[in-house]
Each structure stands twice: as C-alpha cells, then as structure tokens.
Amino acid sequence: MDAEDRVYAQYYHDVSRTTMPANAHEERELFRRYYESKDQDARRRIVEGGLRFVIKIARQYHHGNMEFLKTLIAAGNVGLLIAVDRYRPWVILCHHCKKKVYVPHPKRQRCSHCGHALRSKNAEHYTTRFLTYAAWWIAETIRTELYESSLVRIPTYRQKEQSRGSRTEKTHKFYYVSFEEELNELQETLDEGEEAVIASRARDLLHTLLRTMNDRQAYVVIAYYGLREDPKTLREIGQKLGLCSERVRQIKVGALADLRKQLLRMRSVDAN
Questions:
Q1: CATH number for the 3-89+126-166 domain, one of 1.20.120.1810, 3.40.50.300, 1.10.10.410, 3.20.20.140?
Q2: Which of 36, 63, 146, 242 is the most buried (most CB within 10 A)?
Q3: Would the pTM of this model clear 0.85, i.e. be above it?
C-alpha cells in the first residue's frame, strides 16, 4: 500500500468513527451555536456528522473506479460545506407581506421580500433535517465533477439535459448487417415511405446520396453502419479521424439529416 492509499485508509477509518447528531434537538442546538455565536467546534461536529453520508452518495457514481471515488468524495465534501453555510434552520412568517422567510437564527432578521423587520416570536424550527437538505448539494457537486472530468467538454447544463434525455432513449447496439439489410435500416432511420424506390434502385441510390456528402461525412456513415466492413463505434471512428466521439456523433447526425433532405427532394421530383 503506497502513501496515498494509507492516507485514504486512515480517512475512511476516521470517518467510520464519527457520529451524527443524536436527534433534531441536538442538531438545532449545534446550528444555533454556529450561526449565533460563530462556534467553530459546532460547525466541525456538523461537518463530521455528514462525512459518511458523502461517501454513501459518492459510491452511487464511481462505477467501480476506486481512484475516481476519491475525487468524488472530495467534491461531495465541498458540497457538504456549502450546505452547512446555506442551511437555514428557522422559518419566520413576515407579519407585513405574509411570506415565509428562512433565516439562520431568529433574532434581528429582516424579510428578504419586503425588507421589514421580522418578529422573533413568530419564528419556528424548519422541519427538514440538515442531511435531507445537504443531500442535494452533495449530489450536485459530485455530478458537476463528473461533467467537468468527461472527455468531451460540453457546458454543464447541456450535459445535464442530455443525461435526462438519454434515460428515455433506446440503447443502440453495433452489429454487422448485409447491404440489403442496411438499406432497410437506413430507410427506417430516415422515416421515409420510399420502400419501393429503395428496393429497386438501392445501390445506385446509395452511391448517389454518398456523393452528395463531403469525404468526412461519407466515411462516418460508411464506417458507422458497416457498409464496407465491420461497423465501428464512434470512438473508433474518432481515433481514425483525430476527433472526439461527440464530434463524430454530430457529423453522423448532420449526415443523416442531409440524407433525409435528399430523399425528400427525390420524392418530390418523382411525384412530379
């Protein structure tokens, strides 16, 4: 075991010995000491109580990569610290605008909506426990670390949209198909009703469509669908072209869109 592994083994051992607040009353008292008196010992106890929770969440994302798990734990710890400073254990109903305001402590607070002073006698404890609130911040910092460490540099918000969308899409597998089967698959992909035309002019039509593309688009389509040899994955095609797999996917999507336009144009000509 090298020095770094020994450090993390000791870290896991120390975290396993930490304890969370025994109940909601103890948790509120720690936050009261931290927010009102700036008691750093109370803050330390709150943070230590959430370290095991961070490891639990990080293990949901590491997918067996133990080295990357260390990075995710570090990111989750940052989220835990953010949650400690943002958590508001008190809620006060403003007597002026009648809106609830979440505050760190009940004394000498002003409404964030109307600016009027809040009455401490209206203060109530926030019912959500701290770890329930912290779970979102921990998971968010871990997901951000995942997005930033990906090979393809896409803005975080776009990667999140793609991640949500990918859960509703079908998984595509790569396999070899014959030339005739490939034409049928190509026709289904383009969602065209030209089965008779493709069946009768398959080879000539395919060559005609490929000639309308630039060399890179044509190669991506041929390699991806295995028209001349075994089909290749996006990563394999990217290595051949010196591109990332995301860029190859974009080229493929653009090429299929161009093919669709060409088929629609041919359809309108044949109809006339």
A1: 1.20.120.1810
A2: 146
A3: no
